[in-house]
Amino acid sequence: MKQEIRSKVADLYTSPLFKFNLKYARQQSPDQMFVLSALHGLLPMDQEIDPYELTLNTMKSAQIKEWSELVLNQLREFTDLENDHFTFLAGMKYRKFLVPQMNHVNVPLEGLGIGKQLQKLKKMTSGNAVTSPCAKIHEIGRNLERFRFPYDDTNIPKNGLYLLFEKGESGHHGDRIVRIGTHTGANQLKSRIKQHFLNENKDRSIFRKNIGRSLLNRRNDPFLEFWELDLTARKAKDQYSDQIDFEYQAKVEEEVSEYMRTNLSFSVIEIPEKSGRLEIESKIISTVSWCEECGGSGDWLGQYSPKDKIVKSGLWLVNELYKTPYYSQNEIQLILNKKS
Ligand SMILES: [Zn+2]
């Protein structure tokens, strides 16, 4: 099916199969994209051409071979047949003499009739399609019960992971995960979450400390220098106590609480065993940090962090980033099903 007037290649073909193929191809962000035309051979997407009626489907093999030679010569001008990776969405007759001349070829719709091709293309191009392990983690996290301050913790398990979301941050078609965390001691999940949201002591929660660092840094507040000090040890407290404005520190703690309670929400995944918990936490953090499809927005508070790792990863985290990620959605589904 084609337009009746001269059009750009991308608009000339009007069949649903072509439209979905085009959408799929664009989603793959290839370096180059062409249409294989029985009349013109290789066509760049923005070239204007007149409507025509010609198809390889009714041609004899010798003619198709001749046509393929022409296309291969055109392809050699734009691509490297030996080293480039090619994805074919075109039908069998269009690709059969081309494929053997290339080293890296992918035919995602191979062997499918038109109906099945359409079905598969619709699935692959639908907005909600889960396409990466990070998207899968987001999907799982968003489907769980969401806790917002002031929350009722009766439904929070004793042991597990929490996934934090932040207002204004989105990724993978929904709220974006900005932190993944767990606890080390047995049965401490609830109290770990309390340390973030309720206990106003930055030295007991690295997360609170990091939120405070960004709030102070955003307004060039010189108190940042004192906020950095860890006053947990008696000795440190004695050493710095006459330099620190504790009243102001308490105000900043309040600000941190206010920010967290207003902007953060979380879901939890129950994982009873400590070893599994730490391993799964590390893998989730790595997966999300490696993901190129989601990250901090321009307005995200974390952009003001003095910690490079937070700015770069888009996560309120500095550990377990960029280690071993999950490689497939199935791996995540299996592990999380088994544990919860
Ligand atoms: Zn992601």
Q: What structural keywords apply?
A:
14 helices, 14% strand, binds zinc ion, 2 domains, elongated, 4-stranded antiparallel sheet, alpha+beta, two-stranded antiparallel ribbon, 340 residues
Bound molecules: zinc ion
**Helicity level:** 40-55%
N-to-C CA distance:
51 Å
Q: Tell me the number of helical segments per DSSP (H or I, 4 or more residues long).
A: 14
Strand order of the largest sheet: 7-10-8-9
* Helix and strand element order: EHHEEEHEHEHHEEEHHHHHEHHH
- Percent in strands: 5-15%
Topology overview:
Layout lengths: L6 E2 H4 L3 H12 L6 E4 L3 E4 L3 E2 L11 H18 L6 E3 L4 H4 L8 E3 L7 H12 L7 H11 L3 E2 L11 E12 L2 E8 L7 H9 L8 H13 L5 H4 L6 H7 L5 H18 E7 L3 H17 L17 H6 L15 H11 L1
Parallel strand pairs: 5-6
Antiparallel strand pairs: 1-4, 2-3, 7-10, 8-9, 8-10
Helix pairs in contact: 2-5, 6-14, 8-11
The site of zinc ion has 7 residues, from loops.
